[in-house]
Amino acid sequence: MTEMIGKRELNKARKRAEIVRIATLLFLEHGYAATTMSAIADALGGSKATLWAHFSSKEELFSAVIDMHVGTFSRDIDEVLTGQSFSRPALRRACVRFLDCLLNVNSVLLYRLVVSEGERFPEIKEMFYESGPVKMRRAIASFFSTRFDAEEAARLTQFTVSAVTGYRTDILLRPTKATKAQHEAFVDNFMAHITFPPEKDVTTD
């Protein structure tokens, strides 16, 4: 009986993942407004009842799409931040990885979707902001707090996030695609011009 329940839950999780995958493609290709639950059900090739059994609304399904994307994004960033104490080399690695993630094709498409439809559908802007930028700022602030007090960590987090996301916006507006070398040159320029405050005393008696 336990084995049957386990298989049932596994199949349910696989079906949910497939729904989110298909929904992601449709949301990113057609936008939030133009993507209906009926269209998603048709793309899945199953009954609408199956879709509704997993997600009670389009908002809930879009939230799952964001969670999946942000989860992947967060894991990539965590690889260079988790367990790391502040240092210039560690910050450089984090900024380069941050840019790589932000300029990933799906990241760009999702960002454009939220920006273009966020005014008409504020719920998607709120979902994206809470799941993405807020979590990202916490991770970066935690990294800075290993060497600086809370106020300085918050200031450095704001500078870093603003610089990197601002560069991302500039890149997306350019008529030609920037190279990896240009991304790294930007990070090096940012690192050369940012002034770090005195480090807090982290020694113990």
UniProtKB/TrEMBL annotation:
Residue span(s) of domain HTH tetR-type: 13-73
Database matches in InterPro entries: Homeodomain-like_sf (IPR009057), HTH-type_TetR-like_transc_reg (IPR050109), HTH_TetR (IPR001647), TetR_C_Proteobacteria (IPR039536)
SUPFAM superfamilies: Homeodomain-like (SSF46689)
Molecular function GO labels: DNA-binding transcription factor activity; transcription cis-regulatory region binding
Keyword flag rRNA-binding: no
One protein family per Pfam: TetR_C_7
The keyword Membrane is annotated on this UniProt entry: no
Signal peptide feature range: none
DNA-binding region range list: 36-55
Record key words, sorted: DNA-binding, Transcription, Transcription regulation
Protein name as it appears in the record: TetR family transcriptional regulator
Origin species: Novosphingobium barchaimii LL02
